[in-house]
Amino acid sequence: MSLNNSSNVFLDSTPSNTNRFQVNVINESHESSAAMNDNADPPHYEETSFGDEGQNRFRISFRPGNQECYDNFLQTGETAKTDASFHAYDSHTNTYYLQTFGHNTVDAVPKIEYYRNTGSVSGPKVNRPSLLDIHEQLAKNVSVAPGSADVVANGEGTPGDEQAENKGEDQAGAVKFGWVKGVLVRCMLNIWGVMLFIRLSWIVGEAGIGLGVIIIGLSVVVTTLTGISMSAICTNGVVRGGGAYYLISRSLGPEFGGSIGLIFAFANAVAVAMYVVGFAETVVDLLKETDSMMVDPTNDIRIIGSITVVILLGISVAGMEWEAKAQVILLIILLIAIANFFIGTVIPSNNEKRARGFFNYQASIFAENFGPSFTKGEGFFSVFAIFFPAATGILAGANISGDLEDPQDAIPKGTMLAIFITTVAYLGVAICVGACVVRDATGSVNDTIISGMNCNGSAACGLGYDFSRCRHEPCQYGLMNNFQVMSMVSGFGPLITAGIFSATLSSALASLVSAPKVFQALCKDNIYKALQFFAKGYGKNNEPLRGYFLTFVIAMAFILIAELNTIAPIISNFFLASYALINFSCFHASYAKSPGWRPAYGIYNMWVSLFGAVLCCAVMFVINWWAAVITYVIEFFLYIYVTYKKPDVNWGSSTQALSYVSALDNALELTTVEDHVKNFRPQCIVLTGGPMTRPALLDITHAFTKNSGLCICCEVFVGPRKLCVKEMNSGMAKKQAWLIKNKIKAFYAAVAADCFRDGVRSLLQASGLGRMKPNTLVIGYKKNWRKAPLTEIENYVGIIHDAFDFEIGVVIVRISQGFDISQVLQVQEELEKLEQERLALEATIKDNESEEGNGGIRGLFKKAGKLNITKPTPKKDSSINTIQSMHVGEFNQKLVEASTQFKKKQGKGTIDVWWLFDDGGLILLIPYILTLRKKWKDCKLRIYVGGKINRIEEEKIAMASLLSKFRIKFADIHVIGDINVKPNKESWKVFEEMIEPYRLHESCKDLTTAEKLKRETPWKITDAELEAVKEKSYRQVRLNELLQEHSRAANLIVLSLPVARKGSISDWLYMAWLEILTKNLPPVLLVRGNHKNVLTFYS
């Protein structure tokens, strides 16, 4: 087929107004086929085209003769399909199909919907066709209803429909802010606090212009480094609501995020009180000047503060839009106040201002104020501690990240620009005030220079004023003494007061909004379950009204205290702790080297971020050491609490990434070290099948591998490969989750194979990693071996041979009731379903009756839908009938009890170790490890060994000496001298009856018949074989007699596993040995190591 792209083929040849992917829709109806046949040209497949993104996704192209068919199709009332109306399989219908790059294929082109999370607020998630959908053979005659494009490949319904609908309802008319109003304005208002107007002049007076600039610079370094780290984190993925909590929790995990999120939200709530009290104090000072006090200063602060916080709450509850308008108005007032100060510095000073120390810009004043002049008790760090809170507030924009149009763009841009603008303002005010105002002034216009007075280098003296008496007595004016210097210098003093009001109220308003937003995000993640009540949002903006009122209550409580000098340092330290963790998050994410760490903001360095984190921690102690200690203690306890609760969240944190990197590095490092006998530990493959189906086998293995060795629960899926692989893949996560839920430190692994033995052989060879490879195979005893098919016995004995071939030790565990409880689990599951449905139906009927018929059948269906009651299917009916017809005896209570016997604490008793053959010491190491466990610690070891009857004492002493060198404690040693004695006739008869069905009896038949039987049933036990190993058979029967005599009351028996020589011992005879050896005994572990030392007495 040739491709014809000439212009006459296309009716619409304008490619410029298309979307990124242009996919052409082709009519395959019968009319189209007829038109195609009439056309001499062969059929053409259009190419996918690329264009602009602003227009429709599809451009319909027609071939000659096809437009009429298309017009007829539109007249039926249907419309052309868009990309959202195609099904992934829609390739065999008689209407339309989707072409990708000019080919009829299920494979999909890249689009953002495939990468969204389920329930994403930015749009619905669509599942791409699975690998099986494009790899397996395509089903024939697939019929798909129109409009089913978003049906996902795994058979689920259209994902995200409900979320999209909810999104449309919730976000209609929602207020979203850009980077200026949402971030820049808020950060500037929060950084420009009251400190700018009433403390910066004092700082310049104490530290001088030089050190003052350094103090401002050091503070800005902390905030800038934090801003850079925050920008990197923000641009590494979509940012939701929650601000600092969201950034830290998604980077470092819920433990760090949950601990810092709670104290950060609390700090913002208390900060509301701190800023409001600052505002109230300023108002009270004005009332004092006009002699208009209401009660007394303290109560006036409480009254004014309470009224103010109620007004601020009203603005916040009214909505983010009103709050944003209020912030803009406050910013304008603040900017006017700052401009008013700079204008005032160039307005010529009058006599009154000169007497108070203001002389406009003077080089002599600048030179005099450049160096420090610390008063008693003050120093660089104490002054720095007072100023630093003025530089905080950089998280004000990030805290409302959920209300920003594009948080990834707005937070870095707005925050960094706010830091720059406010820094320039702080430096400008500090330098200007330092160049205009002297440190000390009397305020008296009569303190002028007397003729002939020696100035001693004083700048004020050189300018005609004598303030020398300030050295001996306190003065009220100048940088060191007057907090209202900016008001004095400004062109219009009341504007500075308005600026103070603006600074305090804007910071209070920002904190009042930030605290509930952060708290709501924390509660939504359900890290603290008791706080779930505050997660609910209201209105189009999902406003946290409950959080607002909680913040209001906290703020009001601290306002009524009216004395925040004690709590203020802790608040500053809470904010600094957040900054430290943001910096550390950036460092940690970079250090973990996760491929998912790809921030669009490239101006960062992980070591600079680490320096920023350390600097924040240092500043915490500089500001107030005891407040820093309290902050760390609170954070530590919250961290421990969240870690203990283990919230069920997975955010792909850098902690997970670093755990992987550390594990990988440690595994690689381990491969460089040769194994040593002192470090040997049992590393087990346990053939449990599904771990929940044989819990007792897993429990006894876990008892001697927990915290010391590797444990892998393995399952082999036997059958058609396609079905087995599907079943295996679908259950992997569920079964590993079961292990985690039951606190079993083990891995789950599964393979699909043609037969059980091949699967186990694959597991034995390929399981593990580096030095962490299994060295012991643990299997359950095959209790039903006499009824099992021949292939099962061959596979069972075969895997023991395979383990020995791979030099892997073997442990066979036998308990009286067996291990498999899968039937019990199935019965329990069905009974639970029945009970749930019964309760749901009863509740539905009861609710329906209580309505007294109101709503009728419609109401019943509505309530049934709420209770997830679905129409019973025939399959469920049959299963219900099956359960109802089951005999009660099939629910084996004894089997259930036996499956939990190793979970219980073992009382005082013994573990009897029958160390008959030296296998390297594994048979001794396993019971020793068991005695170290809490559940087995009350059990004592009794050691049984074989020996000569005339050397019992000597061999007992030798064994005691060996055990003492191994440093293994034991209660007693028994030397059995009559192991090789023939068993009694009754025991031997039981053994003979056991093997009778599997014997060939060739000696009783003629040679021809005997040879024929051998060929037909090569698996049977021949008389020659039985005679050759008669002594070994005697030994197994005799050992059972001795076990019955000595170890009948033991809690556990650990016994040397007999080895069947390949080619000499038939499978059925070997199973008979195991049966007679462990018959009618307590739980038995048959153990055989790989005959390499696992114990040593060398240091």
Automatic annotation (TrEMBL):
GO terms for cellular component: apical plasma membrane. One of its GO terms (biological process) is cell volume homeostasis. Residues 694-1099 form the SLC12A transporter C-terminal domain. GO terms for molecular function: sodium:potassium:chloride symporter activity. Residues 32-51 are annotated as: Disordered. It is found in: Cell membrane. This is Solute carrier family 12 member 1 isoform X2. The gene is SLC12A1.
